[in-house]
Specification:
This protein is mainly α. It has one domain. The chain has four helices and no strands. Helix 3 packs antiparallel against helix 4. The radius of gyration is 15 Å and the shape is elongated. Bound molecules: zinc ion. The site of zinc ion (ZN) has 6 residues, from helix 1 and helix 3.
Amino acid sequence: MLSCRDIAKQASDHIDKKLTFRQSLSYGFHLLLCGYCRKFVGHLRTTIDLSHQLSGQDQLSDEEAASIATKALERAKSE
Ligand SMILES: [Zn+2]
């Protein structure tokens, strides 16, 4: 079984769907059993989503950026 350290190392590959089928199964199994890693991966996914939404938006006002961040955090809390 993968360790929590393995989960952290492979987290971005998991989110980007770059793991093999076998790796994905092991990864999913660990997440099923480990609340710590589920939270970690959820927070990482939120951070990546947020950076994608904000990238290329240099003209964003502070209010617009805060609104996008607030929505991302609300989405993360509801997952
Ligand atoms: Zn874990």
